[in-house]
MBL fold metallo-hydrolase (Halolamina litorea), 244 residues
Amino acid sequence: MTTAPDIEVQLVRNATLLATVDGTTFLVDPMLSPQGANPPIQNTPNDRNNPLVALPEVDLDYDAVVVTHRHPDHWDEAASEELADDVPLLCQPEEADAFVEEGFTDVRPVEDETTFEGITIHRTPGRHGHDELAEQMGPVSGFVFENGATLYVAGDTVWYEPVAETLAEFDPVMAVLNGGEARFEEGEPITMGVDDVRAVREATDATVAVVHMEAINHCLLSREELRAGTEDVLVPEDGERVSL
């Protein structure tokens, strides 16, 4: 790999990231389908095929893959087919068997923490919505990448006490949040909206970047709306890099 800043995150699309820590790059939540290849997420106000936008021209050069959870906007059929079978693949313990069944031979479930190329990787809690809907959405995780400087990728979660505790425990220099305020016709949002992002901004001195926007039909909060409703928050476009 080429020399990189201590921490650099490049948004590919939606929650798909290239997260580089001390020269080691992790492909996070690969959703690689062409624009419009998949049906819309049902029971939502915006009935459009997914993904809403094409993949940008990004060099997908990485050392390992990290999947926060297997919902199709974080792990799709295209990723399953296109990634090398022997790529190191880090995931939630509950989902390890599913990756093995798809033919991946180096699946590394992270119970609490693990290491890769000198990077300590901690799995962190998430809550994919509120009340009963969060239970129905199944388990989700975030990950902290630690090697001197610390990167927190929160995953699909709303603001709640364990997110605050993760920020306090690891004191990241960068936090990447999944925004978009994804929602269904009924119930509260299942990813962060303006108030959630504001709460994170108030809780940490880290650089805060928000992704997971304008790519999937149930993500109704736009980049423009989030920028207007927050201060000192980065909202990258697809293909854009955020570096420290």
User: Anything to note?
Assistant: The CA atoms of residues 54 and 179 lie 19 Å apart.
